[in-house]
Amino acid sequence: MFLSRVSRIYYTLSRSLSPVHGMAWTLLVLAATLLLPGKACAGHTGYIFVSHEQSNDIAVIDPQQDYRIIKWIRTSHRPRELRFRKDHQQILVACEEDDVIDVVDVATLQVADHIPTGPHPVMFALSQDEDFIYVPDKARSTIDKISVTDKLIEREIPTGADPEAIIAGSDGKTLYVTSAVNHMVHVVDLEAAAVTDNIQVGTHPARLLAPPGSHGLWVSNQLSGELSIVDRSTKLVSGTLDLHLPHAPPGRPTPVGMTTTHDGATVVVALGQANAVAFIDARTLEIEDYSRAGLFPWAVAFSADDRLLYVLNRSSDDLTIVDMLDHGAVRSVAVGPKPYALLVDE
């Protein structure tokens, strides 16, 4: 309706204006149409997305509007992990209680589709070509290979008991998945659809991280309070970092979420019960600093320029914003009850 009115006005005025003024009017109309609601290019908006497993929604936070929540996206029940597709046009959301992965359109900030999964999806990984989603199935101790196009489970790959965190290897041929009860990381050959190696790590491995430019696979071990660094080329643990240090903040560290700067030089780990995050030199494996956060920091993510660190606090229902220059907390932003996952549209 609005566009048709603009077209009619443009037609009337362009006939009465001189060529120079007509060109100026054309440019003005083009600029106006680009600013129409819902017509903006999706992706790389700078928005921060936070899933809430109790209220079944995702908060959309705009840093350019003083970190105001500009939208609540209704989802299926109990949204957990959030992950972008490569072009940042869509967000995939694991919704545990409805056994689906919701597909959120970033342009409209609405759920546009659903992909059925096995029971209780929590975390997942995308294939390199994004044609398949790999979802750990705790009930059957498998990884389900799901076609994005057909929305069907094409294959079930057996794993150890209680598969949880999962990450795809950069070679496009390998998956890494944790077994929370066996305290190990399984290496899965996708062509063979089988586990080829079992790597013993700490107690209750919770998350996996592969920093760019590194052969290391970082494992946060929630109950033993340590990190295991696995050499992906040898499939061996090349280093272990104990987070129980004398100068650490009070409280037992229960590391969960991890992230890395874009150059892979610094890894940040959320320390859970210690109510802090740790900054680690990825090359030397030395803890460089700690920063206080809210209650039970659970997930971490960087801004696009690595100048700010966002810390999602699971028990205080807020987001701590940390300045990377001095590792000091700048402010805290309420995000709503029972937050689970954090995603930044860089």
Q: How much is the average pLDDT?
A: 90
Distance between the termini: 33 Å
Low-pLDDT residue spans: 1-20, 22-41
Largest sheet: 4 strands, antiparallel
What percent of residues are in strands? Answer: over 45%
**Rg (C-alpha, Å):** 23 Å
Category from helices, strands and their pairing: mainly beta
**Which CATH C-level class of the largest domain is it?**
Mainly Beta
Q: What's the architecture of the largest domain, going by CATH?
A: 7 Propeller
Strand order of the largest sheet: 3-2-1-28
Number of helices: 2
Which range best describes the helical content: under 10%, 10-25%, 25-40%, 40-55%, 55-70% or over 70%?
under 10%
Shape: globular
Helix-strand pattern, N to C?
A: HHEEEEEEEEEEEEEEEEEEEEEEEEEEEE
Counted up, domains total 2
User: What name does the CATH topology of the largest domain carry?
Assistant: Methylamine Dehydrogenase, Chain H
Let me know the CATH homologous superfamily of the largest domain.
Answer: YVTN repeat-like/Quinoprotein amine dehydrogenase
The total count of strands amounts to 28
